[in-house]
Design brief:
Distance between the termini of chain B: 19 Å
Number of strands of chain A: 6
Number of helices of chain A: 4
Helix content of chain A: 40-55%
Bound molecules: adenosine-5'-diphosphate, magnesium ion
Number of domains of chain A: 1
Radius of gyration of chain A: 14 Å
CATH superfamily of chain B: Histidine kinase-like ATPase, C-terminal domain
Mean pLDDT of chain B: 94
Order of helices and strands of chain A: EEEHEHEHEH
Oligomer: heterodimer
CATH architecture of chain A: 2-Layer Sandwich
Largest sheet of chain B: 5 strands, antiparallel
CATH class of chain A: Alpha Beta
Shape of chain B: globular
Largest interface: A-B, 22 and 25 residues
CATH topology of chain A: Transcription Regulator spoIIAA
Low-confidence stretches of chain B: none
Order of helices and strands of chain B: EHHEEHHEE
Structural class of chain A: alpha/beta
Strand order of the largest sheet of chain B: 1-2-3-5-4
Strand content of chain B: 25-35%
Radius of gyration of chain B: 15 Å
Number of domains of chain B: 1
Helix content of chain B: 25-40%
CATH architecture of chain B: 2-Layer Sandwich
Low-confidence stretches of chain A: none
CATH superfamily of chain A: STAS domain
Structural class of chain B: alpha+beta
Chain lengths: 127, 143
C-alpha cells in the first residue's frame, strides 16, 4: 500500500489527522501543503497528527514533518505528534535527525491533553 | 552449510531506481528480505530506512537519477542476514570519508543519509571515485 493522509477531522477547534502507509516524497509534500492550508482555512488552534500508521520515516519525511509543524505553529496553532512506533523512534534517533523540537505523546488521548496544556501554558513552560 | 558470507540465490530482488516512486519499491523489497532473514522489527525498520536514504541519494546525485538495487539473503556460519547493494554510474564521491561525516552535504541537505545509514546497519561499504560511479553495500544480520 502506498501512503496517504486520512481525512482531516475536527473536534472543537482541533484538527486530527492520521498518516499511514508508505509515503513517497510527492505524497509527503502534498500532505504538508494540504494540512497547512487546512489549519489556515479553519483557523484551528491545535492539530494532532497520528503517525502510528507510518512504519518508515527517513530523513526526508522527518524533515518535511518538522517543517510542517513549524509552519503550523507560525499560523498560531499548536501541534502534537502521537503514536510514533518504537522502531521508528529508535531509528530516527540513530539516524540523527533533529526532532527534539516536536511535541509528542504516546497516543491520541495523551496528545489531546498535551495540546490543551500547550495552549494553556505556552510551549516554553510546558516542559 | 556455508562458512563464507555468500548470497543465497532464492529471492534476490533487482530493482531499477529511476523515479521517486521507486523508493517505495526499494522499501518493500527490503522489508521482504528482512522478514525472510528473520530480522526483528527494529532491525527491519533500520535496514529499510538505511536503504531509503541510499536510494534517495541515487535519485539526487546520480547522473540521470538512475541506479539500481540488488537485495539478497546472505548466510555466514549459521547466521542469516540481508545484503543490499546500491549502484550508480553517476559522478562518484570525491571524498568518501567526508561524505560519511555527519552534516556533510554538497546539496544543502542534512548530511545524515550516509553516516546515518552506517549507524543503522552492521556494515556499510562505499566504493566510489570521481567519474566512476558509486556502489554502497549494506548488511544487516539477524541477532
Ligand atoms: N550516489 C552518490 N553519488 C554521488 N555523490 C553522492 C552519492 N551519495 C552521496 N553522495 C555525496 O555524499 C554527500 C553526503 O550524502 P548524505 O549523507 O546522504 O547527505 P545529503 O544527501 O543530505 O547531502 C552528498 O551531499 C553527496 O555529495
Ligand atoms: Mg542523502
Amino acid at each position: 500500500m502506498t501512503g496517504e493522509a486520512g481525512p482531516v477531522m475536527q473536534i472543537g477547534d482541533t484538527l486530527l489527522v492520521s498518516l499511514q502507509g508508505d509515503l513517497d516524497d510527492i505524497t509527503v509534500v502534498r500532505i504538508e501543503e494540504h494540512l497547512t492550508r487546512e489549519v489556515a482555512r479553519t483557523g484551528a488552534g491545535g492539530m494532532l497528527i497520528d503517525v502510528s500508521g507510518l512504519s518508515v520515516v527517513d530523513t526526508f519525511i522527518a524533515r518535511v514533518l518538522a517543517r510542517m509543524v513549524a509552519m503550523v505553529r507560525l499560523l498560531g496553532a499548536e501541534v502534537a505528534v502521537v503514536g510514533i512506533q518504537p522502531a521508528v523512534a529508535i531509528t530516527l534517533v540513530e539516524l540523527g535527525v533533529p526532532m527534539g523540537d516536536l511535541d509528542t505523546a504516546l497516543n491520541a488521548e495523551k496528545g489531546l491533553a498535551l495540546l490543551a496544556r500547550l495552549r494553556r501554558d505556552g510551549r516554553r513552560r510546558a516542559y | 552449510m556455508r562458512t563464507e558470507p555468500g548470497p543465497v540465490a532464492a529471492g534476490t530482488d533487482d530493482i531499477v531506481i529511476s523515479d521517486q516512486t521507486d523508493l517505495i519499491r526499494v522499501r518493500k523489497a527490503l522489508r521482504a528480505q528482512a522478514r525472510s532473514a528473520g530480522l526483528g522489527l527494529v532491525d527491519e525498520t533500520k535496514l529499510i530506512t538505511a536503504g531509503s536514504e541510499l536510494a534517495r541519494n541515487i535519485l539526487k546525485y546520480a547522473t540521470g537519477s538512475r541506479g539500481r538495487l540488488r537485495a539478497e539473503q546472505v548466510t555466514a556460519d549459521s547466521r542469516r542476514g540481508v545484503r543490499a547493494t546500491f549502484t550508480d554510474e553517476g559522478p562518484g564521491i570525491g571524498d568518501v570519508d567526508a561524505a560519511l561525516t555527519d552534516g556533510f552535504s554538497t546539496s544543502g541537505g542534512l548530511g545524515l543519509g550516509l553516516p546515518g545509514a552506517q549507524r543503522l546497519v552492521d556494515d556499510l561499504t562505499v566504493t566510489s571515485a570521481p567519474g566512476s560511479g558509486t556502489t554502497v553495500v549494506i548488511e544487516k544480520w539477524r541477532r
